[in-house]
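Mods, move this if it's the wrong board.
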Amino acid sequence: METPSGCVLTNDSCSCILTSKKEFHGFISGNSPSPATRKMLQENFFDRESLDFDGLAAVYRQNYLMDWKGPHVHIISVTNRCNSNCVYCSAASVQSLKKSADMNFRTARKVVNFIFQSGAQDLLIEFQGGEPLLNFKTVRFIINYARHKGREEKKSANFSIVTNLCAMNEEKLDFLVKNKTSFCTSLDGPKDLHDLNRKFSGGSGYELVSKRLKKLNDLAGRGVIEKPHAICTVTRFSLLRHKDIIDEYVKQGLFRIQLAPLDPIGRAKLVWDKVGYTADRFLDFYAKALNYILDINRKSGIPVYEKGALMFVSQIMTGKRPRYQNLDLFYRCAYDRDGGIYGSDEARLLADSGDMFLKLGDAGTEDFKTVLTKPIARAMLLSAFPGLTRPACARCACAPFCRLNPAYNYAFQKSFWGSMPSNERCMIYKGIFRMIFEMMRKPKIQKIFRKWLDNSSNLRSD
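Not the wrong board. Structure tokens:
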């Protein structure tokens, strides 16, 4: 891959080196590389004359997930009810207030039993919705039951909740804190932008989020809980507000910024002409945001970073597939309130809209091994290796690090595998990789990236 100031070389071992255009074109023309470049090629498995096959085999075992036992992250939607009316929400019944939209204890027990059939020893159960705090009795039941199962089967169960925080109270907070639950919320920017994107039935959602984030940050500062995180869903209204969004995160004491591109699923698909955008427009926004984040690091020393950039930097600089990355069915499964099993929350949301194509099974009637025998499950596992399954990806320098969600491909292009030449998410990922590769040529930025990696000792919670 060419960048404005050089070339990027990658291979199937997830190794990556940066060269000048002159050196690269000389090398492919048959010229001998410099001693330093030759050493770099040998150390990163590019030199066929001096391959370390034992080292390469170890890398392949790691990157092709040959020690896989089962998914680590399990996302449970405990309700389809919500107290917000977000302009882009993917939940099909976001305005439903019927209790029938809640997961009951019987289904919850079956889902937890299914989760513990996974061979993974360290399990993370993440609560989503709708708004999970509206069905808190089931959240509490799942945590208590999963604790019991963990003791029985000698597995660890950790918990996370994705919530708008608007239905939080002291009783709920106390229980979640006692069970060492990590918190993730939504913060789309300053008050006017957040309340525009995320309309709350009780007034300003921004005011409640700010108040409760302060409480969570205070608890984190005392070491009681992990530091809370937030996600910014980028809509068309966000594209000219990158500084406002980042400044708001820093003001709230949130140094992890997650700038999430909008998915054309659910309501967002229906109003795409009002809230959506092209890949080029997102990349322009993202480049400005990332450069502003780097400026903050340089000028103030505040260790703020963007989550997606950190994931890409981690893969590029270490040459390893991060073990915390949520790959469909490999590292995560999602469960609907009726016990339906999916490879991702996006696939579950498609089912909420009536399309069951990506449904893997039912936790009430099927076991983990049975689910793995299904063609859709096998295809989902294969999709974790784009270089082996898509011709365009096999020729792409980003393929060792990149992975597109089948649910996105299916929603956007009606194809499980997707067509990369016209795939907007592929364009976004390629653009971000090219951006990061170019930035890494600058020693000062590379130093900041290394600091991000050094500070991210607990990547699982990232």
